[in-house]
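pinned: reference chain
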Amino acid sequence: SSIYEIFLDRPAKIGEPFRLIIRLDASRLEGLSDEDISNLKIYWYNEVMERWEYVGGKYDRTENTFTVELSHLSKFALLYNKKLVKMEDIKGNPTEDDIYRLVSISVIHGVPKGDKYYFEPKKPVTRQEFSKLIVLATETPMATMYNQKAFIDVRDIDPWALPYVMSAVKRGWINGVPSEEGLYIQPKRNIPRSEAVTILGRL
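pinned: its structure tokens
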């Protein structure tokens, strides 16, 4: 679609989400399969990162409209992203659009099984996995130097997760768990929701 820039002509605070509706001429959808149409989503342009990021939206076949609720002003467009990795197990999930927002900026990659990818929404998240999520989501530079002896169980951190965990530790987002022997990072312990909320409050 065209690019739509939404802005206010005077200072104001947006208190409630507002609705953006993009209507396409029916002729522009002719020849598209249901799958193609389902891949058409509204994106916003992140000028800081210079990229289009997924917002989502619902398609109304009767009205030929794509609708999404927004909470910020920006440039928006209806796009077809062929590179977006589709997750096989989140269709209809209430957080589907939120998940794809993270997929679109490469925070979430999914679990490959054959030629398909799965999000596994009911699978618990470990402390090392959560470290990766918050480091990537905040575009935090990766730690390149860190104290290998900072935690007693540092060897339990998977090699792929080590820079993410140490980056989160360096910024005070993830803390060690004290014991008589010293600090444990417990990288493979499942992280409860209360702890995740506490960590997000530190970002």
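why pinned: The helical segments are 34-38, 96-104, 127-137, 162-170, 193-200. The chain has a mean pLDDT of 89.
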